[in-house]
Write a structure and sequence with these properties.
Layout lengths: L1 E13 L10 E16 L8 E6 L4 E6 H8 L15 H12 L11 H15 L4 E7 L9 H15 L18 H19 L5 H8 L2 E5 L2 E5 L7 E5 L6 H14 L1 H23 L8 H22 L4 H11 L5 E4 L6 E5 L6 H13 L3 E3 L9 E3 L5
Parallel strand pairs: 3-5
Antiparallel strand pairs: 1-2, 1-12, 2-5, 2-6, 3-4, 6-7, 8-10, 8-11, 9-10
Helix pairs in contact: 1-2, 2-3, 3-4, 3-5, 4-5, 4-6, 5-6, 7-8, 8-9
The structure holds adenosine-5'-diphosphate, (3R)-3-hydroxy-3-methyl-5-(phosphonooxy)pentanoic acid and magnesium ion.
Adenosine-5'-diphosphate binds next to helix 3, strand 5, helix 4 and helix 5.
GO molecular function: ATP binding; metal ion binding; mevalonate kinase activity
Enzyme class: transferase
Keywords: ATP-binding, Cytoplasm, Kinase, Lipid biosynthesis, Lipid metabolism, Magnesium, Metal-binding, Nucleotide-binding, Steroid biosynthesis, Steroid metabolism, Sterol biosynthesis, Sterol metabolism, Transferase
Length: 387
């Protein structure tokens, strides 16, 4: 039997990086998905391999289950209902399994994703032969949380076959996990993110798991109900970068300037809190919709200034900021920065002509503009035919 899971990407409205250092962040799911399918091999197939096909990045891997068992069985597990961190020893053993696959040098940045796969698969399912196929609409390494969507969709398929979760396997179409099962899934996905990111806050996997719009601080989430239409233009600079390196660079700057950086993180905390109250406040309240949008734009612009202080902006991001500002539309980077994606709020009454003009100008610079719904459902699973 085949099982599929799909998990959304995310945009961060405020608080990236600072959230790693304990500040509040506000994020929403973004309706581009990573899809993972899992099929265990039956005895009659006589196929004793674990195959991983990463379609969107054009990579295929195959290990004999015996080889995986020989390399990893001394680590204990499966751990299933006890999400467990990948120890230094496990990282070393898994790296050996990845290296044996002659990973193409040009794509070596993707090796952490394969390591996360091996850790999650063997920790949850042990040493069973299977084929796992991953496809994605999300650009990889662009700030839209592809790493989290990868870990969440993979974990969702792995847990679906376990007794630790309760799912009606006869139900047709896409279905959601129950709340306590989502908590387990989210914890496992976080363990995968740790392998990819080094020191993640847990924000991205949490948004991909639960969906909607959330306020997040130190591992705790609060669901937010927006009272304003949040139409966002997402511009991909197409400048590749790596979240792990950017998160590490902010930590290094924090070590060099602890007091200054603590004030920066504190300011971001206030921005995120104000932003979440603003979008939740009823309209019309004291403020009209236009005034609310202007405040939101201002908060995003202030957050961008603080991200520049953290050293995670980039020339390509600055070009997007200058271009959208010509149309009186402030923007901020979203995700880890250093390239990747930029977020621009499109006010509800903004004319379609302006949106077309700004999009055309951004695309003429070689950037790619994406518009997708935000705040939709989190991870879902499908046992039968998916629609
Ligand atoms: N569809 C995918 N297939 C393979 N690996 C993926 C996929 N999506 C994400 N990854 C993993 O996540 C990494 C990118 O994560 P990251 O640098 O955090 O950027 P982001 O999460 O913003 O896309 C990749 O290098 C790879 O290891
Ligand atoms: C920079 C950070 O706040 C978000 C990273 O998002 P992404 O991997 O760039 O999509 C890191 C984190 O919260 O773990
Ligand atoms: Mg990521």
């Amino acid at each position: 039997m085949e099982i599929k899971a799909r998990a959304p990407g995310k945009i961060i409205l405020a608080g990236e990086h600072a959230v790693v250092h304990g500040s509040t962040a506000v994020a929403a799911s973004f309706d581009l998905f990573t899809l993972c399918s899992l099929r265990f091999h039956s005895d009659s197939e006589n196929d004793d391999t674990l195959n991983l096909s990463l379609k969107s990045v054009g990579l295929e891997f195959s290990w004999s289950v015996g080889r995986i068992r020989e390399t990893l069985s001394h680590l204990g597990g499966p751990f299933l209902s006890t999400p467990t961190s990948c120890s230094t020893e496990a990282v070393r053993c898994i790296a050996a399994l990845v290296e044996e696959q002659n990973f193409p040098e040009a794509k070596i940045g993707l090796a952490t994703g394969v390591s996360a796969f091996l850790w999650l698969y063997t920790s949850i399912q042990g040493f069973k032969p299977a084929t796992v196929v991953v496809t994605s609409d999300l650009p990889v390494g662009a700030g839209l949380g592809s790493s989290a969507a990868f870990c969440v969709s993979l974990t969702a398929t792995l847990l679906a076959y376990s007794d630790s979760v309760s799912l009606d396997k006869n139900q047709q179409g896409w279905l959601a996990y129950g709340d306590s099962d989502l908590d387990l899934l989210n914890k496992w996905a976080f363990e995968g993110e740790k392998i990819i990111h080094g020191k993640p806050s847990g924000l991205d996997n949490t948004v991909s798991t639960y969906g909607n719009i959330i306020k997040f601080r130190s591992g705790n989430l609060t669901h937010i109900k927006s009272n304003m239409p949040l139409k966002m233009l997402v511009t991909n600079t197409n400048v590749g970068r790596n979240t792990k390196a950017l998160v590490a660079s902010v930590s290094e700057r924090t070590l060099r300037h602890p007091d200054a950086m603590s004030s920066v993180f504190n300011a971001v905390d206030f921005i995120s809190k104000e932003l979440s109250s603003l979008i939740e406040s009823p309209t019309p309240d004291d403020l009209s919709m236009t005034e609310k949008e202007e405040r939101l734009q201002e908060l995003m612009e202030m957050n961008q200034g603080l991200l520049q202080c953290m050293g995670v902006s980039h020339a390509s991001i600055e070009t997007v900021l200058r271009t959208t500002l010509k149309y009186k539309l402030p923007s901020k980077l979203t995700g880890a920065g250093g390239g990747g994606c930029v977020l621009t709020l499109l006010p509800a009454l903004l004319s379609g002509t302006i949106v077309d003009k700004v999009t055309t100008e951004l695309e003429s610079c070689g950037f790619q503009c994406l518009v997708a719904g935000i705040g939709g459902k989190g991870v879902e699973i499908c046992f039968g035919e998916s629609s």
